[in-house]
Fold this protein.
Amino acid sequence: MSQPTVVRVGPLMPFLEDALERMYAAPSLADVGSQTEGLTVAVAGGGTVIGAAEMDQLPALRAIANFGVGYDNVDVEEATRREIIVSNTPDVLTDAVADLSVALVLDVLRQVSAADRFVRRGEWAAGERYPLTREVRGSVVGILGLGRIGEAVALRLEPFGAKVAYHSRSPKDVPWAYHASPVALAEASDVLVVLTPGGADTKHLVDAAVIDALGPDGYLVNVARGSVVDEGALVQALEEGRLAGAGLDVFDDEPNVPAALLGRDDVVLLPHVGSATVQTREAMATLVLDNVAAFLAKGELVTPVN
Ligand code: 8YV
């Protein structure tokens, strides 16, 4: 059999792993040892780092197909320097991630998860009443990072009666109020939904100042990357009653969630499942396979990022 050209880096969903093995006899990087000369395409999962060290291990590497719209796990600058092209999986996950963002907005305001725990604990049956909650209608929802997913979240929340505001690096041709900084957006918002890319440029973009601008009646929802929010500042603000609640799908050190959050009813904690539906994960895997096939046939990627 001829030398493999595709290598799997880190764990991948079974559908994608099976297809790569069947179509390209793709080995795992953990198993290739020094047999790396033919390996020109790497396929990586969202949580798997591909930096200079991994690129050193794969001297023939020319393309990286990343499973995820976010690619902060890949050192794209280093890849570009080495003339390695990188792709992600945009668009196919927009609806699923937007749906989950809306679910978190509704949950933090109406306390669906916390009220469910209240019933399970037997408190309703014991005659207690669940406290009144807040509603979306009339709330200002600030979108931090108005990309494809941010726009989809805004469009979903408008029919609920939310007023949409946003901050992005520059104003866009949209009907929503633009704010020039994250602090200004947070000041104007009841709920701040974080949907920026991850990486060095957005690290701790949501810091103590932004959290304080959101204030004791404000809610934070993060569906982007844990790195965008200063988790320590968030925990402290919740503990001191300086923020009303948070809905978090992403964390600094996944799968570890700060212990201080686990017992709190004012936070909703999800295990990074924004895109985790059968339909969307299959579509993401198919787009990864399309990128691999396009690279092998034409030396090009379908959805390049560099
Ligand atoms: C995935 C994601 O969970 O697309 C992204 O950027 O965060 C998610 O869709 C992740 O990439 C899967 O490993």
Remarks:
- The two ends are 33 Å apart (CA to CA).
- The chain has a mean pLDDT of 97.
